[in-house]
Design goal:
This is D-alanyl-D-alanine dipeptidase. It is an enzyme of class 3 (hydrolase). Its cofactor is Zn(2+). It is a single chain. This protein is an alpha+beta fold. The protein has a single domain, classed as Muramoyl-pentapeptide Carboxypeptidase, domain 2 (2-Layer Sandwich). It is built from 3 helices and 7 strands, in the order βββαβαβαββ. A hairpin with a 2-residue loop joins β6 and β7.
């Protein structure tokens, strides 16, 4: 049902921060880090990989499929619907059709986007004009790559992209996957 996202099949860097304490909850959420996407999202990611390569960059994924149980953990840490989807209504991550990511340069260093991943402040919103020219250019490059590959951006988080028509995709729990990530 979900497609594993990993080299060599996908030419990306994987850095699942929710499997580490380096996230907004300050504790690992995933016991077993697996980068997974719905097949439709995996196909769109392949297109984004090609486009990023065309501008001399690579993609680094911070999160992809996020089980419903993990969405609840994030909601308990920050119950703000501007930044965390209310799990009672479902998240695009929990449908396997969203990614949190950035661009890296040829040496594997993340491009400067003006804030880090999961910086839940207005500085993370798209369209900021109070960033440096380089930061604005880097965000615009990521936005261009992702939207050209069929993804939609989320206006409050420069790193979050999702497929349209989210209701077409079912919510998935870790329990339904046999405890693959959290069990």
């Amino acid at each position: 049902m979900l497609t594993p996202i990993a080299p060599p099949d996908f030419d990306v860097d994987i850095d699942l921060l929710y499997a580490t304490p380096d996230n907004l909850t300050r504790v690992p959420i995933y016991r077993h880090p697996h980068c997974l996407l719905h097949p439709d999202a995996a196909a769109a990611l392949r297109a984004a990989i090609r486009l990023a390569r065309g501008i001399g960059c690579r993609l680094r994924l911070y999160d992809a499929f996020r089980p419903v149980e993990a969405q609840w953990a994030l909601w308990r840490a920050l119950p703000d619907p501007s930044y965390i989807a209310d799990p009672s209504g479902g998240s695009t991550h929990s449908r396997g059709i969203a990614v949190d990511l950035t661009l890296t340069d040829g040496s594997g260093r993340p491009l400067d986007m003006g804030t880090g991943f999961d910086d839940m402040t207005e500085q993370s919103h798209h369209g900021r004009t109070d960033l440096t020219t380089e930061q604005q250019r880097n965000r615009a490059a990521l936005l261009g790559v992702m939207t050209a590959a069929g993804w939609r951006h989320y206006s409050f988080e420069w790193w979050h992209y999702q497929l349209p028509d989210e209701q077409r995709y079912p919510l998935l729990t870790d329990a339904a996957l046999g405890g693959l990530m959290m069990g």
